[in-house]
Fold this protein.
Amino acid sequence: MNPTGAFIGFVVGGAAGFLLTETVGAFFTFVIDRTLDVDGTPALLAAFIAVPVLTAVLGAAVGARLQNRG
């Protein structure tokens, strides 16, 4: 396993997760006209924390795998 590929994948995956959660929040705010309240909904707060973490771990795995191929 190459740590450089894993680190780059981790950073890119985490950034993609944050972008995904912000996009969902902006969609609900501007298109549906309903603000998501993460303080009042523990499941929503957990989702907004878990999505960037999971995408970062997935990005690290993909980055390490792709770095080993070539």
Summary: The mean pLDDT is 90. The longest helix spans residues 3-31. Helices lie at 3-31, 42-69.
